Amino acid sequence: MMKNFFRIIIFFVFYICWADVSAQLTNAGGDINISYSSPEEFEIGEVTISGSEFLDSKALISITNLKAGDKITIPGEQISSAMKKLWDQGLIGDIEVSAKKGEGKIVNIDFKIKERPRLSKFVFKGIKKADQEDLSEKIDIARGRIVNDALIKNARKKVKTFYEEKGFFNTEVTITSEKDSLLSNNVILNVKIDKNERVKISNIAFEGNSDISEKKLKRKMKKTKEKDWYKLFTTSKLIKKEYENDKNSLIEYYNTLGYRDASIVSDTVIPVDKKHVKLEIKLEEGRKYYFRNITWTGNYVYTDKTLDAILNIKKGEIYNTQNLQKRLTYNPQGYDVSSLYLDDGYLFFNVEPVEVLVEGDSIDIEMRVFEGAQATIKNVYVSGNTKTHDHVIYREIRTLPGQKFSRADLIRSQRELVSLGYFDQEQLGVNPVPNPQDGTVDINYTVVEKPSDQIELSGGWGGYFGFVGTLGLSFNNFSARNITKPRTWSPLPSGDGQRLSIRFQANGKSFSTYSLSFTEPWLGGKKPQSLTTSLTYSKQNNNVYFSGGGSLSVIGGTVTLGKRVKWPDDYFTLSHSLSYMRYTLDNYSFGSSLGFTTGTANNLTFNNTLSRNSLDDFTFPTSGSNISLSVSATPPYSLFRKVDYNDPKLNSEIRYKFVEFHKWMFDNSWFTTLVPGKKRNLVLNVRSHFGFIGAYQRKTGIAPFERFVMGGSGLSGFNFLLGLDLIGLRGYEDRSIVPVENGRQVNGVIFDKLVTEIRYPVAISPAFSLFILTFLEGGNNWSNFKEFNPFNIYRAVGVGTRIFMPAFGMIGIDYGYGLDKLPGAEKTGSKITFTIGQQLR
User: What confidence tier does 84 reach under pLDDT thresholds 50, 70, 90?
Assistant: First the structure.
């Protein structure tokens, strides 16, 4: 009986629908007797479409599946079926069918249609221009589309989804149409949007978390936070995408604690009011598991014992699959199993951990190893270098054809290319292409050039100095061999990795200096041995301060040979340099600190520097260190000069005609991330600096031409003519920390400085990088070794920022506050310092 009831209902619905459609059939000729109780069969003479302006009539007729000669019953299902097929196209707003009788049983059928309007454009109202542009891309409905209910519904849904992703869950969207006066049968859709206020999270509640506290779970949701009065800098927006990511983070956190079966049973967003929602997350923690037995199969190159030592997971440890994968594939804090194989050429190596037994709370793992054959590098390709010549890149690459493949060499090659400073680090690609058929691998390096030349330009009016200005140009990818080939200039000869620097500085009429330097990083082109030559000329005049003229001029040059060394490791470089400076004093008024005002002094110095640089980035380092030990020495003239240095009446011009000293400098800078694994991270930088200047014999004393001055930015002024090392110390005035002897200030011969910085990147890109920092540092300067106390330092705290632009290099602004009062000063105070260039000290 129930079946018969449903049949009646279905028949009734079908009859109503059929009758509604059939009722639209009209007798155009007036001579066809349309009787729904007595259908009559006819032959179709012609099928026509009327009312069509833009649609193809022939295509529409073919859709009806009616054609001349077909038998048709009127009224009947064929007309209804034809109308339905036309409706299904979504192109027609109204259909009327008429039948006109011809001779005998011939009937002509006409479908009179009314086309739906087409879309001219969307007009958004109530939102800002940026959102309008984003929405146009999001909706992505082409002009000319048929406007129907489905199109409007889809557009409304996309608009609401767009704003829900931004946290606006109460967005109201109203879409109305108006005729386009310029285009026939086209409409403009006006989309009025009222975002209302962004929804915030008032509370996050967890259910089912018996082993992990709610507080810990909330901390793991990095972007989904509830609002509290004390969370001044914490956003509480509900963003769907971030909420989904945070839910995944919860499960990942459970997995790291051994809860391999943890899952989110349900999560509900409950409206509290128009501005707030509550999140309820129901968890199922499951059981906590532990590692039990770990076995290896398929390994022949390395023993189980070796692999166990690298894996370093002990029986009874919490079952943490993330840690397992890290120890197998890539461990940023140490060695991993993949490195063991890949650094030895086993490019086709693979290891798959398989759970072979789960018993109680213990899991046995079988490591299924496929070692494969060692791969040999077949071809190395470089692409994307539009300015830098191929040989400059190839000489830095450590993966050479014919060598055994090594992932460590691949990573090191990438670092060396970045260190050149010519390419965008973010877009530098290294792509190994294995060839399993012959056991080889091709390596493709792709680079994107970035600006590397720099300009230093500054100027101002310095009181009675007059104009104060600096102009410096550094061409860091120069090509000396192309100087005679103007066609290769762009705008100067470039591409060979050489460095040419020109600098001019002037302080009105009182001071001027000119310098020129050139570096060939690969002397001879076969080994990483560098040659640097530099020339400098400086002059300072007295006439700004004193009448009667007088001046100090310095001319000098330096030749430096450097090379990379492989011991203790290949991050080390060793350089040797020979420099000569000639000081000429002509009634120089500031010569009182030297003991003479007219005469000459000669400084011939041999320097040896051993340094190690393993920084991962040269703009914003996050790991590695930079260490340097430098020893400079002049010839021991006092051993063979026929001069009595013990004579207190010895003329200073004679005493210092040949400057004599030995100088030791040590600098160390170390970087590490504070939260491993995050892309944007707080970075800890710890630095220490030490310098000492001594004499070969006590009787000669230490020449006044080489001393230390501390304080402020550490930027050079005219005082550097006398060979002073300016050591920056933020929070204090420039050159304010100097020793005091017999009631007067003197320059120091020994200093130390300790720095701790925490840095955070705000923007990192090849064109513009910005990071902010906070610092704690301290240092001091002594006039003799007996008074040296490395812990008796002047301290300072502060904040700062660093801006890097390729054309200008690193620009720094710091606000420091000196915590300790200087001798003779009334109080401590703050100081803003400005620096240009990446300075180690």
Answer: confident
Calculate Rg over the CA atoms of the chain.
41
Handedness of CA 673, 679, 681, 686 (dihedral sign): positive
Tell me the per-residue pLDDT of 222-246, one tens digit each, with 9 for 90 and over: 888 877 665 555 677 777 888 888 8
CB distance 62 to 82 below 8 Å: no
Q: Is the entire prediction scored with pTM above 0.70?
A: no
First to last CA, the chain: 97
Contact by Cβ (8 Å): 415, 352: no
Contact by Cβ (8 Å): 601, 583: yes
Strand-pair partners of 562: 530, 575
Tell me if residue 505 falls in helix, strand or coil: strand
**b/e 109-130 (16+ beta carbons within 10 angstroms → b):** bbbbbebbbbbbebebeebeee
Structure-block tokens of residue 313 = 């997971």
Evaluate if residue 559 carries a pLDDT over 90.
yes
Helix axes 149-164, 129-139, angle to 10 degrees: 130
Displacement of CA 382 from its chain's centroid (Å)? 23
CA 71 to CA 68: how far, in whole Å? 9
Orientation angle between helical segments 321-328 and 240-256, nearest 10 degrees? 80
Q: Edge-to-edge, what's the strand order for the sheet holding 172-179?
A: 118-125, 186-194, 172-179
Phi and psi at 517, nearest 5°, equal -140, 150
**Helices marked H in 118-225:** 129-139, 149-164, 214-220
Phi first, then psi: what are they for 760, rounded to 5°? -145, 130
Q: 10 Å Cβ neighbour count for 497?
A: 24
d(CA 841, CA 729): 9
Q: Which residue has the higher pLDDT, 138 or 434?
A: 434
User: Whole-angstrom Cα distance, residue 307 to residue 328?
Assistant: 10
Instruction: Please enumerate in sequence order all residues whose Cβ is within 8 A of that of 273, keeping only pairs 6 or more positions apart, or say none.
Output: none
Give the neighbor-by-neighbor strand order of the sheet with 290-297.
290-297, 362-370, 350-359
DSSP 3-state assignment of 228?
coil
Q: Are 439 and 453 in contact (CB under 8 A)?
A: no
Residue 330 has a CB neighbour count (10 Å cut-off) of 11
The CA distance from 353 to 327, in Å, is 12
Q: Which residues 6+ apart lie within 8 Å of 255 measured at CB?
A: 262, 320, 321, 322
Residue 68: how many CB atoms within 10 A of its CB? 12
Q: Look up tokens 């990192």; give the residue.
A: 764
Question: Which long-range CB contacts under 8 A does 644-649 form with residues at least 24 apart?
Answer: 645/697, 645/699, 645/700, 645/701, 646/699
Which candidate, 828, 711, 702, places its Cα nearest to that of 778? Answer: 711
Lookup result for tokens 């997995």: 255
Q: 438, 432, 306, 328: which is closest to 373 by C-alpha?
A: 438
Using alpha carbons, list the distances in angstroms from residue 574 to 547, 570, 629, 722, 838: 48, 11, 10, 27, 21
Beta bridge partners of 557: 535, 580
Percent of the chain with pLDDT over 90: 33
Name the nearest CA neighbour of 778 among 758, 798, 754, 799.
Answer: 754
pLDDT of residue 178: 84
Contact 798, 732 (CB under 8 A): no
Strands 750-763 and 744-745 turn out to be: unpaired
If we measure between CA atoms, which residue out of 207, 197, 198, 237 comes closest to residue 221? Answer: 237
Contact 191, 124 (CB under 8 A): yes
What one-character DSSP code corresponds to residue 388?
S
Residue 275 contacts residue 199 (beta carbons within 8 Å): yes
Sequence letter at residue 320: N
Strands 725-727 and 708-710 come out as parallel
Residue 780's CB is within 10 A of a number of other CB atoms, namely 23
Cα angle 611, 614, 617; round to 5: 125
